[in-house]
Amino acid sequence: MDLLPGVIKEANRLFTVIPGQYPTKTVYGERIVSKDGRALRVWSPYRSKLAAAILKRASIEFSRDYHVLYLGAATGTTVSHLSDLLTEGTIYAVEISSFAMQRLVALSRERSNIIPILADAFHPERYSNIISDVDVVYQDISQRNQVDIFIKNCNLYLKEKGYGIIMIKARSIDVNLKPTKIYKMVKQQIIKDGYEIVDYKNLNPYAKDHACMVVRRI
Question: How far is CA 181 from CA 75, 132, 190, in A?
Fold first, then answer.
């Protein structure tokens, strides 16, 4: 069953279809299988919170020509699967770690739709000369001020009819509060900052104390 263009679900497993213009090989050690003449990469929800959110049926959509600002790209695990989907689009992959950036740059040499950006996402104005308005702002950052970072980037780069996806890491915001309390506080802040909550999914059991929120500008 195809959940999204380029995403296949079989039982409780997800796969992305490797586009013809990219090498048919593993990116980070994931399995590759062949089905109906297509090469598929296993997309584990335990390694990618975006995969977990899709399995949870979050209201997420990606067209092949979408431009995505990805905050917290790390070494490119989830970025590589988005690269499979956005065959006519672009992923602006922002990462603050120079060590992780080395692998991200290597990945971008094989996949032309990934643009790696070594930067602090708390200062989105610093990469304004590199990116233009995007259809989606996606964030997966483990910082106390993760919501502030998300809103700043959405305010600066998100198209009027675009949407944002934030993976909330409750324990990174406050280890002393229950995750449900954190999620409620995040919802209130997002609404206060001029966005509506389109969807919300708790990502247990795939990612403990994590939730996915999909938002749009009001």
Answer: 31, 35, 14
| CATH number for the domain that contains residue 84 | 3.40.50.150
Please state the pTM of the whole predicted model.
Answer: 0.95
Helical pair 98-110 and 77-85, crossing angle rounded to 10 deg: 30
Where the chain has pLDDT below 70, the residues are: 1-3
At 113 the pLDDT is 97
The closest of 60, 35, 33, 31 to 47, measured between CA atoms, is: 31
Query: 110: domain range?
Result: 44-217
42-81 residue pLDDT tens: 999 999 999 999 999 999 999 999 999 999 999 999 999 9
Domain count, the chain: 1
**The tokens of 204 are what?**
């247990």
Does some domain include residue 19? Answer: no
DSSP code string of 134-159: EEEEEE---STTHHHHHHHHHHHHEE
Q: Is 64 helix (H, G, I), strand (E, B) or coil?
A: coil
pLDDT for position 22: 84
Is residue 81 in a domain?
A: yes
Q: Answer left, alpha or beta for residue 180, where phi above 0 means left and psi between -120 and 50 means alpha.
A: alpha
Q: Which residues pair with 195 in a beta bridge?
A: 217
